[in-house]
Amino acid sequence: MNTGTVIFLNGTSSAGKTSISNELMQILNEDFIYLSVDNAIAGVNDMLMNMFGKQITRDEIRTIEHEEMIENPVISLFHHYIMAFSRIGKNVIVDHVLIDRSWLEECIKLLHNTQTFYIGVHCPLEELERRERERGDRPIGLAKAQFEMVHKHSKYDFEVNTSDNSITECANMIKDFIITNQPNALKELKVKMNL
């Protein structure tokens, strides 16, 4: 089967995944579709706003969307979208925050037989917190809450640090890596985690 290439970026909020994705879209030689977990849950957020009216805040919605009854089906659907695009030969850049082991396990099961490069996007907590305050569009403390979980069970094909390197440098390093290497991380994680 001729699957599309998946560049799967995993890291905390404010680590730089979206900026790297935008840069990759500009410098890669082939066309890529951008899929973000934030965009995937945006429709749920809008639905909740309509259901509960204007009195519910975005922070309250973020709390609601982390309840299992809403979150798991939406996240699982997002993972299946990634697989579906790859299986029909589309190239995909994925912007994700794998804060739950079950999410990683599902991605491994769905994507281990595809051309998926699993990329860790790192940044020190102090810098994440500074970016979070500067951005003003994320709840304060979100990056800290995700920091210990997001890379806990992961083994990557390649890793970048957006504190040590610029977004452009990180994107170019990822591009160079995927041109000259084959992905193995998800296959190895499948064996290691006995999936």
From TrEMBL:
<dbReference type="InterPro" id="IPR012853">
    <property type="entry name" value="CPT"/>
</dbReference>
<protein>
    <submittedName>
        <fullName>O-phosphotransferase</fullName>
    </submittedName>
</protein>
<dbReference type="InterPro" id="IPR027417">
    <property type="entry name" value="P-loop_NTPase"/>
</dbReference>
<dbReference type="Pfam" id="PF07931">
    <property type="entry name" value="CPT"/>
</dbReference>
